[in-house]
Design brief:
The chain is an alpha+beta fold. The chain is built from four helices and seven strands. The chain is 41% helix and 37% strand.
Length: 179
């Protein structure tokens, strides 16, 4: 009579192994083939990670700054339009990838530290090549040893897919309701 209980235990183990393989396969598939929304969020997260820097004595040269800005502009279309609200509540606009690159280079030359983080991402796919995302961006920067600043804004992005990459074509601060 031990034989039937042994068979039941083997069936339970076999069913558990099959279930683990199916669940693992599902997550592996989602990792290898992420949804379009996930691709957009991942792309913006990579951009945010690239923006952050802490300058050391070895990184003060123009070459490292130029390489950094070249890496960053690859996330944007040639005709990028960025309209963001600064710390004082004033809106400023940048038009074009070259202007954005110049502004980033100027900022890097003046800052010792720039830390940027993204939270609460929400992505919406309008078509196979057009998407939108809204995220909360937190930026902290230091111009010298004593001067530290921060900026937190919700930013809406419009993206287009070119050559299998999602590129930012527009970035706009979402207005804050003031009482």
């Amino acid at each position: 009579n031990r034989w039937p209980s042994f068979m039941v235990k083997n069936k339970i183990v076999l069913i558990s192994i099959i279930a683990a393989i199916i669940i693992g396969g599902f997550f592996l598939y989602r990792f290898i083939f992420p949804s379009t929304e996930r691709q957009i969020i991942r792309r913006l997260n990579n951009l945010i990670e690239e923006i952050s820097f802490a300058r050391t004595e070895n990184e003060r040269g123009q070459l490292s700054s130029a390489l950094w800005s070249e890496r960053l502009v690859k996330y944007f279309t040639e005709d990028i339009v960025a309209t963001l609200e600064d710390v004082d509540g004033q809106n400023w606009s940048l038009n074009g990838r070259e202007r954005l690159k110049q502004t980033m280079l100027a900022a890097r030359s003046q800052l010792e530290l720039l830390e940027v983080a993204m939270s609460d991402p929400v992505a919406l796919v309008k078509s196979s090549i057009v998407g939108q995302a809204t995220v909360t961006i937190t930026a902290r920067w230091r111009e010298d040893e004593l001067d530290s600043n921060s900026w937190i804004r919700e930013v809406a992005f419009e993206l287009v897919k070119r050559d299998r990459q999602w590129l930012v074509t527009k970035a706009v601060s979402v207005p804050v309701i003031k009482r």
